[in-house]
Structures are given as structure tokens and as C-alpha cells.
Write a structure and sequence with these properties.
The structure is a single chain. The protein is an alpha+beta fold and about 290 residues long. The protein contains seven helices and twelve strands. The protein has helices at about 1-10, 120-140, 165-180, 185-200, 210-215, 215-220, 280-285; strands spanning about 15-25, 40-45, 50-55, 80-85, 90, 95-100, 110-115, 220-225, 225-230, 250-255, 255-260, 275-280. The strands form four sheets. Strands 1-7-2-5 form a four-stranded antiparallel beta sheet, covered by helices on one side. A three-stranded antiparallel beta sheet has the order 4-3-6, with no helix packed on it. Strands 10-11-12 form a three-stranded antiparallel beta sheet.
């Protein structure tokens, strides 16, 4: 599971977790609900009866948070009614209401792989917009100009159904500033911040014996006969090979260049603080 989760995290670009569920015969686990993750259900032993339902309305599709439990009368008819047996796989996205039970004659053991939690365009914008607005304040005088002296006389909920030239001009100005905000947005910076979160969430890579023999994990510095041996000094032109493509991320943070990595992460979620290396900007000039 460690290797599978680690590999899938890199593939999906989003943290992948795994939960194992053992359900006795003739019983049901959870009441109908939706989850805030994409789910892959792999049946290992026994049988499990699954029923899936469409979201009740468009506003509940692809939710960011899990739902409370529902009553049967609230969810309508299932769009899928099936029984999983060993070796079967079932996928359903965020927002699909689901429930499962075991038949009277069989227990069930399955693993659920989950991913794509808080990994939406909206989550990217939550990181992008505050940064863009801060940059706009610093670089663009239009954002620093004062509001109209009398804006409280025509803006606000109590004025929302009243048309006026002042109100129209105010709305046009806001529309202009919001559109202009994109020119101050570092989309790459926001993507790096999202990626940094994935690095922090990730499991450490599973390292094979062959990989260990060519890295510090199996062939690094060691103490022999009263001295440190096998020591290698890194130079700006040193050639290195990454153990995995997705284990590091170069990020610019407040004029600081950092390489975040998951090599020293543990198999306990967020047990350690984010790990990073500070990089001298002069080193990058060699590239």
C-alpha cells in the first residue's frame, strides 16, 4: 500500500490515502452520504452491495466538504446498484451519494483509495487572489486610490435594487479592477504553493535496494576507523538524479528560493514539519 499510494500521489498530483474496511455479514457501515474525495474501492474479500446516487442538485456536485448523513427518502433512486466481489474495482467522484451493505451470507473486506481533496480551480484561486491583490497594492496606484466620498449613499444591500449613475460607475470600476488583477497574478507561484502542499502530504518514496546502493540511504557518509568516509561535496555543476520525479518542488517565497521535498516525511500524516533546502540565488545563475 505504501508503494501504491506513493505512486498514485505522483500520478494524480494530489495526496492519495487508503482506508481498509472490514464489515461483518448482514450489516451496513455508514448511512447514505457523499465524500469530499474521489474514491476507488477495491474489493479484497467477500462481497459488498453498493448503491450510488446522483447529487440532489447542481450546487451539491463536486463538493469541497463531506455531507451529513441522509435519509433514504432524501436521495431518490440509485444510478448504480451492484455487488462487488474480490478483484472488482468501483470508482465514484466527489458528491456521488453512496451507501453499502453486506449480504447475509458474506463478510466484506475492501480498501478505499481517496484523492483530489481540496485540489480544485477554486483552491488554486484561494492562493492566487490574495497574492495578486497584495502585488496590485504595491505596483498599481489604481488599487490605492480612495473610495468615492459618498459611496455609502448608493452601495450596499439596501441600495441593490436601485439604479443610479453613481452606482453604475462604482460597479464598472470594481469590474475593471477585478479584471486588471490578473495582470498582477503569479499563476506559477500559486501552482507552486499547491504543489508544496502535495509534497508535505506525500509519503516518503519507497526505495529499492538498487536505488539505496546509489544514494545516501545505502551508500552515504559513514564512520569507519575513526574517520568519515564516502563523503561527497556538492558543487554547482554536480550531476544528480532524482529518486522520483514528484519528490521535490522549487518554490519562491518572499525572495527566498527553497526546494521542498518529501524524502524525510514519515508514514504518519504530517508528523513532521515541511522539509526544505534554502538555495542561494547565485547557485541558480550557473544553470
Amino acid at each position: 500500500m505504501w508503494r501504491l499510494n506513493s505512486t498514485l500521489t505522483e500520478y494524480f498530483g494530489s495526496f492519495v490515502g487508503a482506508n481498509v474496511y472490514l464489515t461483518p455479514a448482514g450489516s451496513q457501515g455508514f448511512a447514505p452520504h457523499w465524500d469530499d474525495i474521489e474514491a476507488f474501492v477495491i474489493q479484497l474479500e467477500g462481497k459488498k452491495h453498493w448503491r450510488l446516487y446522483n447529487p440532489r442538485c447542481e450546487e451539491e456536485a463536486l463538493p469541497r466538504f463531506s455531507s451529513p448523513n441522509f435519509k433514504q427518502a432524501e436521495i431518490g433512486e440509485p444510478i448504480l446498484d451492484t455487488v462487488l466481489e474480490p478483484g472488482d474495482l468501483l470508482y465514484f467522484p466527489r458528491g456521488i451519494i453512496h451507501q453499502a451493505d453486506t449480504p447475509a451470507e458474506s463478510h466484506s473486506l475492501h480498501v478505499t483509495l481517496s484523492t483530489c481533496q481540496r485540489n480544485t480551480w477554486g483552491d488554486l484561486l484561494q492562493k492566487l487572489v490574495p497574492q495578486a491583490l497584495q502585488t496590485a497594492f504595491e505596483e498599481d496606484i489604481e488599487y490605492r486610490k480612495a473610495l468615492p466620498r459618498d459611496y455609502m449613499n448608493y452601495m450596499g444591500v439596501v441600495w441593490s435594487d436601485k439604479e443610479s449613475s453613481e452606482r453604475k460607475a462604482f460597479m464598472n470600476k470594481v469590474h475593471q479592477l477585478v479584471g486588471r488583477l490578473f495582470h498582477h497574478a503569479s499563476v506559477d507561484g500559486a501552482a507552486d504553493q499547491m504543489s508544496k502542499g502535495v509534497i508535505q502530504d506525500s509519503l516518503p518514496p519507497v526505495i529499492s535496494e538498487a536505488e539505496a546502493s546509489r544514494s545516501i540511504f545505502g551508500n552515504g557518509e559513514r564512520w569507519e576507523n575513526g574517520a568519515v568516509t564516502n563523503r561527497v561535496e556538492m558543487e554547482p555543476d554536480s550531476n544528480i538524479k532524482l529518486l522520483r520525479k514528484g519528490i521535490i518542488r522549487l518554490v519562491m517565497e518572499e525572495d527566498q528560493i527553497r526546494i521542498y521535498h518529501c524524502i524525510e516525511n514519515t508514514r504518519v500524516y504530517h508528523e513532521v514539519e515541511p522539509r526544505f533546502l534554502d538555495i542561494d540565488s547565485r547557485v541558480l545563475s550557473y544553470a
